[in-house]
Amino acid sequence: MGMMPKEDVEAKIDMIIDKYAGKSGVLIQLLLEIQRELNWVPREAIKRINERLGIPESEIYRVVSFYTAMSLTPRGKYLVRVCTGTACYIRGAQRVLTAAEKAIGVKAGETTDDLKFTLQTVNCLGCCALGPVVEINGKYYGLLTPKTLENIISNLRGESS
Amino acid sequence: MEANIKEVNLTINGVHVKAQKGTPILEVARQIGVEIPTLCYIKGLSPYGSCRICSVEITTASGRKRIVTSCNYPAEEGLVVETDSERVVKVRRNLLRLLLARCPKVTRLKNLASLYGLNEPDLWVENDSEDCILCGLCVRVCNELIRVSAINFANRGIKRTVTTPYDEFSEDCIGCGACAMICPTGSKKVRTNNYSVVRPLAAPQKDEKLGAYIDILSAKSSIEGQDGGVVTALLLSGLKNGMFNKAVVVKRKSGYRAEAVIASTPEEIMEARGTKYFRIKIVPKIKELISKGERKIAVVGTPCQVRAARKIQQILQQEHPDLDITIIGLFCFESFEYEKLKAETARIMGVNLDDAEKTQIKRGKFIVSINGHEYSCKVKELDHAISNGCPYCSDFPAFFADVSVGAVGSPDGYSTVILRTDKGKKLVENTCLEYGRVNVEEITKLSSFKKNRAKENFEPLIREIQAVRLKIRGAVGDDA
Ligand code: SF4
Ligand code: SF4
Ligand code: FES
Ligand code: FES
What we know:
heterodimer, A: alpha+beta, 48% helix, B: alpha+beta, 8-stranded mixed β-sheet, 13 helices, binds iron/sulfur cluster
């Protein structure tokens, strides 16, 4: 996805808001769509929703900061979520996480400068028997070792975007 | 009695009472003098049920026994309520242990806890300076009563907090202080980005109604305009003399809708002439200018905008010591919301506000000029178009401006000018103006009127807050 010019981002935000204007109780859906399209919810979006739909900025900010599915900072193209839940932890999640930090080059919670990767930790992805587990953009990878994880990351990095 | 208001019978601590169906049990109990402690409930705001201190034990008509929060549990037929049973006391005691571990230094919590035999926190204390119990009263008062929604909850889990968007100073906040007043713990949190007091101005004269000032004059310029063209003249001369290089002004956009714009030339200043009675966000424009390296900036605004500008100046000066903002304030009794004003003026006067060449407020009248015709109605008739928050604001003459300007106190064609700071004085001295006679009493009168209106509007809330606090104080002595 990379960086979009500012005007394009604004036009996109307005287009998404258009779809929801006039309906009530749509804030969460609207924000999820912005997140999906832009990979984060920029300040500009909060401002525009406030101006156009009259929802207070503080209310929009509350929602975005509450849901883990939404992000107040740009997220990378690949969201790498390393499970550090109990089962995975016992099976070596910490080593997988360290390997992920090294392979991606950022710490958990951060995003690479080229907006390719965001690394997060998560508590239990619900498939403990496969631990250690990592989820990348909805796809699950189980029984990982630091080595297999490194391979996955370098494959993704190699892909043309 | 109307058919849809149903009366129900219930028993509270053995006393039989009749109540309207749906009234919170807490209110019913109060009617018969039974007090239940509360932390997150104030009558008049929607109940939130977060602190659970108001827990009571109920037995429903069908015989089910359980603990509920009385501030939001509706009275129903046959309910038996115990407000101080052993089980209730135990529940409250445990809640207070948790609250005390969260906020070990909050006097009001300590007082309440001591009523339940707890004197020291006996659980792990994470951060002993925490002073917010997340009761949400500040959020609700700002949203439901003041209706500006400057603050809200943010984040989740252990990071949950009350704050402004991005933890930054909020321009939605009108600085009314209701959030600080209502907070059961006296938390500093809500004040960090909103109400936190703006440093007062130093000036030779201080007056409760007029603010701090050096001098008060009446003046007019050769430029046409409702305020005698004084604001425009000040901006033009300040720009020419290099007191500032850019000005943030409010300008008509399409139709009568207005927006904040940056003006850097005399032409742009002239284009923004004329008074608009709207509250428009100006802080983003100030920040935009600063990020572009501008340091000498002028802003024009209503008292709440002035307060925001002054506050933002005090915050940003820590980072940019050379930041120099000249603040020109406008007298303001209340402002309007564009959409509402458009609808109301259409309804009352049959005009389309977007066609207006000029609007003005004079002698209690709102006057719209269209194609040379003047249409008017009483300002009072436009009550429904007033911006949220204004009825709770007590600043008429823009207390925090460098210079305040307004029509009140001056003869037709002239404006009253209050010089508050040396900067404001210099700006006026360097501007070519013609002087007239000022009637200070008129300003004082309107300023008191606005202050009193805010006070009256706050009264019911203050009464409720005091009632709750007195109850705790009555038992053990309070901090307040
Ligand atoms: S001071 Fe008034 S407007 Fe500002 S946050 Fe508090 S309640 Fe809201
Ligand atoms: S700051 Fe005060 S009023 Fe607001 S949530 Fe915290 S304790 Fe409640
Ligand atoms: S602990 Fe990792 S999937 Fe459950
Ligand atoms: S839950 Fe009822 S007062 Fe807090």
